[in-house]
Each structure stands twice: as structure tokens, then as C-alpha cells.
Specification:
homodimer, alpha+beta, five-stranded antiparallel sheet, 26% strand, 31% helix
Amino acid sequence: MDERFETLAGLAVHGANVQPGQLVGVSASLGQEELARAVASAAYRRGAKFVDVLYFDPFVKRARIEHADLDSLDYVPDWLKARLLALAEASAARISLGGVVSPEALEGLDGARLGRDQLPWLKEAMQVLNDRSTNWTIVPCPTHDWAELVFPDLDPEEAYERLWSELWHVLRLDEPDPAVAWDARIELLKTSSEALNDRRFDAIELKGEGTELTLGLLPTSHWQAGDFVTRFGVRHLPNLPTEEVFTAPDPLRADGHVTSTKPLVLKDGTIVRGLTVRFEGGKAVEIDADEGAEALRAKLELDEGATRLGELALVDRQGRIGKLGTVFYDTLLDENAASHIALGAAYAFSAAEEERDRLNVSGLHIDFMIGSDELEVTGLTPEGERIPVLRGGDWQI
Amino acid sequence: MDERFETLAGLAVHGANVQPGQLVGVSASLGQEELARAVASAAYRRGAKFVDVLYFDPFVKRARIEHADLDSLDYVPDWLKARLLALAEASAARISLGGVVSPEALEGLDGARLGRDQLPWLKEAMQVLNDRSTNWTIVPCPTHDWAELVFPDLDPEEAYERLWSELWHVLRLDEPDPAVAWDARIELLKTSSEALNDRRFDAIELKGEGTELTLGLLPTSHWQAGDFVTRFGVRHLPNLPTEEVFTAPDPLRADGHVTSTKPLVLKDGTIVRGLTVRFEGGKAVEIDADEGAEALRAKLELDEGATRLGELALVDRQGRIGKLGTVFYDTLLDENAASHIALGAAYAFSAAEEERDRLNVSGLHIDFMIGSDELEVTGLTPEGERIPVLRGGDWQI
């Protein structure tokens, strides 16, 4: 066993903050066995009662998309929902292994058929997340497949080692004590999110090359960073690495235009490059790109909320992902590379209860990067005062 | 993809008799992905609504046995039971992949701790089986691990090819149409089981080298072979390859002694060779062996029923497994090598409803081979008449 998986597993159970006596649900894909086993072992060593590793096989999904009856493709078996809801009911820990696995498994399939099969994603996951009943985390798992996708010009073994070393760095596993390093990093992000919450800005202005956007906030738009707390008081780090401070904007107030600073990778693998979007009254009214604009426009036809914003996330220059210049083809990593906005659904916890019905609702959530060290982020107070938030990639508040 | 897996998958969905619109539960272990995927594909091509492949990871089990709290080792999560019961409720098809996977995964673990963790086995499986609510089958899946266990003296690749070729033969995949070959084979076994049922023998006498045993039958002891029918009328072949005609004896009437004709492999890997057992009034009163007797005796201390018989199975010389002389270390294959008896639990469907409470009850079921072509099997009528059943390995009735 590659000892690096044990170290990474140690960070995963620290991130999820597995408690003695807890049930632990682990979601992995085939190809991620080594990390899944190391996570199970680490969770048991922390006193877990039972670790249930559920392996998803994308090649079985392929067989379904190829051969099953079209009308059956949205069927989701009750027992998968039952598992997730039972974990929530038991206030369990949940650990998901991220990254890309077997990208060839779904290659060349009919997009319309593929779009009807939501698995392994479950609608109930959003509910469990919003309930704050489980302490959870997602960590990336290096695989050879993924390495070859990210570094196609390298020899496969070199690509794998390169992926490991970049992930090792962004996961802060190269620090003397990664847990302490993450505590320090999250402390800074929290200081910034709390300062943003204290300020109660009416709007945020983003200004950089090709970007000039003013985004209205709701009176209770809540900025959040790094760590979550379950409703039973268990602190956890939901996404490692995490570099963002985020909230949900007022979906009716976005005006101006943005230009993406990194390629956007859609879930079906389509890459959108040189994306520009113009907003009016919160709505994306013009969508252009050097490449892939049509695929993105087609996706945004899903529902009314798909063309409005559900998230604004700020990333400072201490974030380690953006500097690498690597496209990981994995949203959870790539979105932490730079400040970004997301078309589609907002997270319910991004506003106070009484204002949740003002948050954007949609069946999708597409993050795309518009940030860079040059992006000037400014808070606008209700009185019209302009307060610098990020300058040269450093927090100003 | 090795095309042999597709052929084997074709036999599996034929054996389970997957119906259009059915849910299909597939149970596999990690290491059996190729066959699991081929089975999923074949099931979808037969019109399955959804194929749920559940992968079991013996290395995650190892982590549990090594590190979890002793008192938690008998915990079984509700969602695993829920899955099985939902499949039964939906009258689903079930396909399990057999054979041996990663025998090293559980090596060297504490037997007492290991014995408390029943997974992946579920108690509810017996209930679902006795309910006859699902059409199901088990087929062996060749793996490199298994091949090296069975043929330790061969080069790994040769061992793998040898395992494939022996399984190919015993699965009758070398016949022009395996489905037709199985129909013919099962027809013969059924003719024999029906003749045995018609005869209503009071007892069966087994006579061969080192074996002289008279086994009483219950008035409704029911002989069965090869195929089952669900209570909704779906015929299926539960175990491929199958070569046996079996029933449950009267647990209070077994007298004489037997000598095993093949090594017995216990679930924890212990091998019992040269086993002899003496029965008095249905009870095993003396257990000896050239090797492994103590491990077997320890197991039989589990409960009162463990030392009485739950099954008598007859295998004729047309069975293909015994002739190979191979020990597969897999009960479902090895038990089809020769006539055998089983200490422990009887299957509920082996007697009429009104006599089920006379069947043997136990927490274990251990088959061991006492048959050979030389074994003389004779039926004793209530009137004391002696009717030949098997002579020289051929059916006489």
C-alpha cells in the first residue's frame, strides 16, 4: 500500500471529524479502492462503529445508458435513498472521494439519455446537506486515469506522480502538521467571512480585465468559509482543499459583464474556453465563448433559475490551486483556484431562514472562475460607501 | 474486455432468468468487476429496469475486524437489509458472483472477532430464499487470486487459464448451446428427483469404502434438483453449475459411519482431510480426521443442530466437477463434485409445510463429500424393500 493514501486518509477523517461510535458512509468510485480502504481503516481507528463503503461503477452506468429503456433512466432505487437518509438520521459522518475516475466510461454516450440518469447523485443529498445532520468532507483521490487526463503530455507514471505532488501541495500535506496548517488557513478565511458578514454590504463590485460586474446581496446573505458545524455541534471541513469565502447573491440584481479566467469543464466533459457573460437585472442575457458556448447555452435552458446566480465566492492569493495553473477537470478543485460565480441553485444556508425563498432555485449549479490576483473586489454599503475587499489578491477587511 | 466474461454473463442472466422490466440485484466482490459489468450489460439487454451492483470489499472488512470495537462487530446496517427486502418485495432477479476473491484479505485475523462479523451475508437472505420471491442464481467468477489458490504450482497466468478452462467445462460453456445443455442435464436430475419423490423411501442407505450409513427420511422429505420456481412462476437455475439431487433427512435418524472422499474446506480456510464421522440416532458422536478434526469439532459446538444432518445430496457420474479432481475451495463448486451430506441447517422447502418443524435447525451448514462412482445408494421402503438408486454412478430409478 502506497503510504501516501494513509496520510491522505488521515486528513479525510480529520476533515469529516469522525467521532467515536459514529456510523461512517464512504462514497467512492471503482479505481479509488486504496484510498477507500485507508479511510475505512483510519475511521475505525478513530472509533467508528461501522464504515459503509459504497462503490460506484461508472461502467455499470454505461451499460444502463446504452441498453436500458429510456423511460426507466430516471429511476432511483429506494435503498440508495434509504442509505443516505439513515446516515442522516443517525447523525453519521460522510466522506466522499473526489477527483476524476475512468473518464472513458461515459465517453460517446447519448447526452440526452445520459442526462436522465442522475446516479450516483441523489436529490436527497441537498436535503441532508441543508439539514446539517451529518459531518462530512470530500477529498480528491489521485488515480492514474485522472493523472493522464490532467497531464496528457507526460508519461503515465510521471503524470501520476505529478498529480500526487500537486494534490499533496494543495492539500497542505507538505506542511509539518497539515491539520494545524488547515486550522490556520481556515482561521484567516473565517476572519474574512466574518468581516464581510459584519459589513452587511448591499452589493459587491468585481473589476478586472474583461470583468465589470455589480452583484446585489440580500440583507441576510451569509458569508461562509472552510468549516461547517452540524446542528449537533460537530465542526467539520466539508471540502479539502478549500480556499473560498462564499455567499449567495440576490438573484434579481446582477449587472455588467464577466470574462472567465480559467476554462470551465461541464459535467459531460465539454470544455468552455474564453467565456463571456453579460448580466441584466440578475439574468445572463448574452453568453459567448471562444469554444463550447453552445453546450453551455443548451444546459442553461433547463429552468428559469439556470440563468441567474446562486453563488459568489472569493479566493485570495494564498490559495494554492490557482498558482499551479493546472486544470484538474474537477469542480471542487478548480473552483478553489480563483474567485468565481455560479449560475443556478444557491445553498439554503447562504441566507437567513426568513429570506431563503429569495435565493435562486435551479436544477443546476455551474461554477466558473472570473478571479485573478488583479481582480478588484469592492464592497458597496447601503449608503454608497466603497470599501476595498480584495486588492492584489489580499484581503483588505 | 475478455469475451469469456460476456459468455459467462449470458449464462448468468439465463440462469437467473431475468425478466423484462425487472429490478436486478448483483452481488460481487472487488476483483470481479469484469463479470459484474458484463452481467449488468446482459441484464439490461434482456430488458431489466435497473441493475444494482453491490460490491463487497474484503479489505474494508479486514479494517473492521482489526480496529472496530468487539461489541460492534455484529452490527449490520439497516440499509443493507432494506436493499435485500426491497428486491424481494419487488420480485426482483438476483445474481451473485461466486468463487474466491482476495483470500489474503482475511488472513491472520483473530477467529473469534472474525466470527462476529457476518457481512456480506445477511440473515434475511435465508428468509428471502424460503419465500421464493426472487428468481436468482450464483455463478463462479474466475479471478487470478482464485486461480493461484487452486493451482499453486502453476505459473499465475497458466493457473488463470486453467481455472477458466475447468470452469468453462463444468459450466458446460463448451457445449454448442449451453442453455440447451443445461436444460437436458437438469431434465435428467429432475427425472431422478421426481422418481425419488414418487418412491417415498423411508430411508436411504449409503455404502462405499469407509462409509456405511443409513439415513431416515421424513414422510414429506422433498427431493429437488437444478431448477427452482418463484411463487410467481418464474423458473430459474439457482446454482450453476449444479449437479445434485437433494433433500433433508430426518435429523433424528442417522446411524453408521462415513468417510469423506474429498477435503472439506471450512469458511475460515481450514482444510479437513480424511474426515470420518460416526452417527448414532441422528447425532455425530465421533469426529476424526487425518487433519483439521479439532477445528471442525470446535465449529460444531455452536448449537445442538450442528451435529445433526440437514441435507443429503446425490451426485451421479455425469457431473463434471468430481472428475476433474480439483479442489476449488468454493463450497458451491466442491459440493457438486460428489454425493454429500451436510451437518447443520436444512432448507425449509425440503419438507412439506406441516413437517417443517421436524427439519434440522442450526446456525451453520457444512457440506462434506462422501460420494464416488463406487458409492452404492439404496432406497429402503417402509415395507423393508431395497431399491437401487445409484450404482456405478448411474441413476437406477
